[in-house]
């Protein structure tokens, strides 16, 4: 099976591209969604995060308090690195379990930080979804109901578009100048020929 990573900065449209890929019959593992789910449901992960960051990052019902956790990790590179070192191995294991059950010729994984984490070694090809920064910022603000400052704090913790482009095998431009569906159709055609 060809394992394809879909990357891009915050608000670039990775999830929109992956939704279209799913509608075409391709399975997609959403690493960010799985990460959130595991932070809420995995006792081992919860214990490790509490040991590292304190009990206040979880609510009384055992759900990760994302705004509190984000305020800790996105303002401190060492704390972000520690959080990733705790969370990523469990998400990676979940991904490997998931991918072993897939039966299609191609599967996809969507992740904002795929190129920065331990998933990278598991991936055969990389698709970069690009969009102008101002569009990305506006999308992220609207989707997450967060301020422009928060979006820029998250952007500074991601690879730049140029850094992602260096590792990408395919690029999808998600802006007002190009239609996205023909680009995805071309991507799938090229992937099926590999």
Helical content class: 40-55%
Strand order of the largest sheet: 2-3-1-4-5
DSSP summary: helix tally: 9
Question: What is the general shape?
Answer: globular
The percent range for strand residues is 5-15%
Radius of gyration: 17 Å
Which quaternary structure do these chains form? single chain
Mean pLDDT: 93
Instruction: Tell me about the largest β-sheet.
Output: 5 strands, parallel
Distance between the termini: 11 Å
In total, the number of strands is: 5
The H-and-E topology, N to C, reads as: EHEHHHHEEHHHEH
Structural class determined from secondary elements:
alpha/beta
| Low-pLDDT ranges | none
Give a brief outline of the structure.
The protein is of the alpha/beta class and 194 residues long. The protein contains 9 helices and 5 strands.
Q: How does this structure look, described?
A:
The protein has about 190 residues and is α/β, with parallel strands linked by helices. The protein contains nine helices and five strands. A five-stranded parallel sheet has the order 2-3-1-4-5, sandwiched between helices. α2 (about 30-40) crosses α5 (about 75-100) and α3 packs antiparallel against α5 (about 75-100). It is globular, with a radius of gyration of 17 Å. It starts with a strand and ends with a helix. The mean pLDDT is about 95.
Keywords, please?
54% helix; five-stranded parallel beta sheet; 194 residues; 5 strands; alpha/beta
Please specify the SSE layout and strand pairing:
Layout: E1 2-7, H1 14-23, E2 28-30, H2 31-41, H3 43-53, H4 66-73, H5 77-100, E3 106-110, E4 125-130, H6 133-144, H7 148-155, H8 161-167, E5 170-173, H9 180-192
Parallel strand pairs: 1-3, 1-4, 2-3, 4-5
Helix pairs in contact: 2-3, 2-5, 3-5, 6-7
